[in-house]
Amino acid sequence: MPKYNNKIIAILGPTASGKTRLAVELAEKFNGEIVSADSRQVYRGMDIGTGKDLDEYTVPYHLIDVASPKISFDLAKYQKMAFRAIGDILKRGKLPILAGGSGLYLQAVVDNYKLSEAKKDLALRKKLEKLSAVELFLKLKSLAPKIAAKLNQSDKNNKRRLIRYLEILSQDENFKNRKGRRKYETLLIGVKFNKNILQQRIFKRLLERLKEQNMIGEIENLRSNGLSWKKLENFGLEYRFIGWYLQGKLPYDEMVKKLNIAIYQFAKRQLTWFKRWEKQGAKINWVKDNKKAEKLVKEFLK
RNA sequence: GGCCUGAUAGCCAAGCGGUAAGGCGAGAGUCUGCAAAACUCUUAUGCGUGGGUUCAAUUCCCACUCAGGCCU
User: Fold this and answer.
1) Distance of C1' in B27 from CA in A244, Å
2) What ipTM does this complex have?
3) What's the sign of the alpha-carbon dihedral A155, A160, A163, A169?
4) A72 and A134 housed in the same domain
């Protein structure tokens, strides 16, 4: 009989909130292993910019360094690998600790999203990308009026999402979004700071990465390994802004300033996701210190 | 002391007689295969101050204040 049955812990929070440290501490105390829930830490060679902090891990970790940055990764792959890793950890009688800031990835695992079978169709995407949002929307409307009617202003203008709808419809005419039953009993722990402190932590960390950790060198390395500027830009934040800097599109000081703002804006978007998850009924236990988290876990595992 | 130019939201900035573009930032959101991505909404009853002209002024005129430049 496995010790932890089907219980898992999930540690979430905005960037620069110290999730990794907390996750490692808990893993040490409760015989756990960490499953990263970070859409960028899956890539090899992207360490400083994504804040992998591999030297902090004193326990086994999963879903870090599992993909090449040259090959696109996505939610479906993540979900599959995460389920596999969690199942494996549980089988060995240990406690899986999901930890990360990618809200969608986290929720897809915790709430057991039933993703469409429709695979990505590069040729179709390329074709559709040439159309405007309005054209894409009209196309969707004629193919699936019910889905189109449900879209809000934001989705109607979002080409990327419209294209995915059309892509799914081309392979699966009657799909709908579904959540499965939760696979695991999950304790959600959120790490949060007030905005000023978060802002300070972000800026401080950014300067450390630039001045002490040679983050720019990391990006130059990725380049010399053949990663395109476009790929770098698409990874966002440090990879995007430093990429622009290296191409001479931004002077250094401006790059630092704009990147800092972008990271903070990202942190706010993460928080928005978590708020939304709560509105949907998730119980997130927000903690200020690791002691409190430990207590929650102890209680949860009883 | 004299002359010139400018003064529009937190910042940058367009408008120059008919009732305040845009960008950035900020705030709030959307989200089921690119999610650190992509996308949406909100954000000046007000245009340095005081007068005047006009049906109507942020736009024209006068004075003042401040800033920058030039001259003595």
Assistant:
1) 28
2) 0.92
3) negative
4) no
